[in-house]
Each structure stands twice: as C-alpha cells, then as structure tokens.
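Every protein is a chain of amino acids, and every chain bends into a shape of its own. Below is the pair of lines this work produces for a single protein:
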Amino acid sequence: MNIKKLAIAINLGIIVSISAQANTSTLSIEERLALLEKRTLAAEKRAELAEQKAANLEKTLQNNTAFKQQKNAQPAQGQLTTAVVESSSINNSPHLIETNSQYGKLKLYGDVEFNTDMSSKKGQLTSINTQSGKDKDFGDYDKWGINGRILIGLDGERVLDNKNYAGFSVQPLANIDGNVNLDDAAFFFGKKESWQIKLGRYEAYDMFPLNQDTFIEYSGNTANDTYSDGFGYIYMMKEGRGRTNSGGSMMFNTSNDNWYFETNFLIEDGTSIFTDSEYHGRKQTNKKNVVYVRPVIAWNKNNVKIAAALESNVINNAYGYEDKNTGKFKDQSKRNGYGLTLGWDSLQDDPLNGLVVNWNTAYLDASSEKDFTTGANILWRRLQLGYIYAHNDIKSYALNDSNNVNNEVIFGPGKYDIHTIYSSYELPNILDMNNFKIYLGAYYSVIDGKDIDVKSSDKNRYGARARFKYFF
C-alpha cells in the first residue's frame, strides 16, 4: 500500500467530516464559513505532518527489507558471511570476513605446516683439557617423527584519506604436540608510504635470509637464537631481531625512494638466549633486562638489494657471574653484532627462469667469544642450494664441578669451524590447488675442531624433511 496516498485520503475524510458538522450547526453563514476555513487550515497542517511521518516510515521499512535480504542471502561455500573482500599477505587469495567499516578492514588468513623428519643427533664439542667424567651429556639422539602447526592470522587496519593509519596483527599457533603458542602480536601506526611505529611481538628485518629453507640444522645446535654450551653456535644477526619469549620490542621505520631505514629496540631477560642460562660453563645471574638496539639501512632498486645493520646490548652489567676468587661480579652481557647482506631477485620479471641469490655475513664480538658466519644460497626453477660457514673463537670456558676446589675447571681457549650445505625443492599445485605445496629438503653439516676435540661419532650431522604447506 502506498502510505502517502493513505495519508491524503485520511485528511480528506477529516475535511468532509468538518464540513458535515458545519452544515448542522446553528451558527450564521459567515461564522460557519470562518470556522470552516480555520479548520481547513488546521487539517492541511496535520496532513503535511502525516505525510512527513509516512515518508520516514516508508524509508525505514525499505532499509529493514534490504537488511533482511542481505542476512538471508546464502554465502559461497567455504566463505564467511560477508562484507569486505581482502587478500591474504601469505598467498594473495581472496578472503571474506565481517567487519565494521567505520573502524577499518579486517583480514583473516591461515598457514598450515606439517613435517615428516629424519635427522641425526648433534655434534658435541669437548676440550683437549677435559678431565675424566667432565664431558657434558645432553642425551641427544637420532630423530624420526612428525611435527608441525596451524597458524591463524587476523589483521586489522584503518587508513584515513590523509594516509594516517593504525592497525594490529595477531597470529596464534596450534602445535601438533597440543601446545598453543603465538607467532606475532603487534600494534602499529603511522603514515602510509612514509613512516611507522610498531610495538609488541614480531621479527625485525632479516639480515641473514636463508630463502626457501625447508630444513637446516647444524653440527652444533640449531642456534639462530639460542646458545648451547658444548655445541657449536651459528650467529646470524638474530639476537636483537625480536619475537622473544622473555620481553617485547618497539620499532621505528621509514622509507624514501629506494632507501629503507629501521631501528628496533628489544627489551628482554638477556640470559634467555642461553640454554639453561649457562654461558661458557658458568650459570648466568640476571641483574637487569638488556636493551638491544638494532639499526638497519637497506637499498633496493630493480632486482638488487643491499642491507647493513648492527645490533648491540647497551646495558652494562645486565647479567654475569660472581668470580669465586675475588668475589667480584663479572659482566658477561657485552654482545655487539654486525651484518651485511646482498641479494638479487628476478622472479617477478621471470617467474619460470628467474633467480634469487643471497649472500650474507655476520660477526659477533661478545664476552670471551668472537664468532664469524657467512653463507650464500641460490634459487632457480624451485630448486635451492645453500652453504653456511661459521668460525668461532672461544677465549675462555669453565665447567661447574662440585668436586673442584674453585668449583671451576678452565677449558679454553678454543676455535672450531662448522660447514653446512642444504637444499630444498618445491612441488607446487598439489591436487591442482595453487595454495597447496610440498617442499622436500635436506642438509649435511660437519664440525671441525681446530684446538677443540670433537667426538668422532657426533662429528657429522644430516637430515631430510618433507613439508606439507597449505595456505588459506
């Protein structure tokens, strides 16, 4: 029914009623005409008001009808009901998710990663001065098994017309062992294509990219971020990069033409990078949190990338041990790292025959230790080959022992090298799905003690993996 026509008919009826009352009145003709004119004007005003209310009611009913139609519409199979279409940062496939457009856009995505592994046990270092019964035994063993996790990512962002923006990213991880962890949890704000400030849990600029690194371990520990006494250490400029389990980060970055600058601040318990808080055979006592400052400058044009960085703990006496001879506190928190990486990437120009090449180098000047690492990798036609070389020089080492008078047995100094080669190959479009891939990877690593003995049975290390990768 047309509500406007209904309102007009009602008002005409009122006018007719008024006229009938005027005919039966005992007033004079002039008085009747005046009264009729007065009532007619009042009726016209009421008609205008009724027409406005009817128009508002009709508009409300139309909006409600459209809303019901939208709610009752059937979504496409496998998609969330509705509102904003976004692309995943992982695989660039479309995703639908409900959002409040007043406060920006949301993006939901995921990353499934499951592995079947075969790997040997670690190579253990011992000293030429090791006394009987003083060898460290980590109970390591050959590993065969299945591991993996599912990542669910949720990103939110609001951008204004003047390019001011703010947003967040959170990425819970469900591991195959039943534990639930967290990859990233960060808040950021700034101006698009100009500058940004980020806070929380995340990783800063990668100064030692391994590219398609399906499976890499070492004759030593897998120490990108953890140092284990008695095993080799591979320093890769990652100690101040972030995503720590004992602190948080804050970063400022900006870009100008082909230049990119960032400075990351990581605040954490500095002893967390050492297994069991033990460094050079001594239990480390944490006095105060460390602050790593990690500036990076990078230049990227066409296919070429160059980046240089340093990372340094700027807090003195953050952690260390008490010298049993003097009773004084010995600071062990000096850690200054330097890195340089060069890269070439032509995959965007030629996805089939393009090349990705990286060369990385890193140097660590730490308390009683100096480490140098360099490596290169090349990717062509989904096949990658890589090599990493590490040379470490330990200036002193002590092993706690309750039977020793000073509770210390001096081991150092000692030098050793680690050589690691690795490879991986991508099998794309599994079951004709462009978001389902399988990666095959393998590595072989050798530790070479210069003036440190290496257990012969643990000297070499090797492994292979099949990784099932699915994006959504």
